[in-house]
Write a structure and sequence with these properties.
single chain, 132 residues, mainly alpha, 6 helices
């Protein structure tokens, strides 16, 4: 069992260390031997996010790029939905950027990735949309 890193302050060293841990877990998604470990670590981090760590975590997900394997892209999009179901209103300031990433991923040729995008967009609307 891995220890879920926590970020309690916005100290620059602590932020860099936390970012490193998130990126390390994301990188595990690129290797068949560590895919499940990386996915589990990233999902476990969601429950532990604080006001200080949420923007750092999201930044790492936003930075997934075209050079990453398809599973990493899918998992990053899926994690937006997991975040929405757990953190709801806290994510509202980040919704535009999350949707920008989803729209960018919709342009890719992978059908499963597009399905993840559609599912995640629905989850974002369900949990984060303004009730008014």
């Amino acid at each position: 069992m891995t220890t879920v890193p926590k970020l309690e302050s916005r100290d620059s060293r602590a932020v860099l260390e936390y970012r490193h841990e998130v990126l390390k877990s994301l990188n595990k998604l690129g290797d068949k031997a560590t895919i499940q470990t990386g996915a589990t670590e990233l999902a476990d981090m969601v429950a532990e996010l604080t006001d200080a760590s949420l923007p750092v975590y999201l930044s790492c997900l936003f930075d997934t790029n075209d050079s990453q394997v398809i599973f990493a892209k899918r998992e990053s999009v899926r994690l937006f939905g997991v975040l929405a179901s757990v953190h709801r209103e806290t994510l509202r300031p980040h919704l535009k950027k999350m949707l920008d990433v989803i729209v960018r991923r919709l342009r890719e040729n992978d059908t499963a990735l597009r399905d993840f995008c559609a599912d995640t967009a629905g989850v974002l609307v369900r949990f984060c949309a303004d009730e008014n």
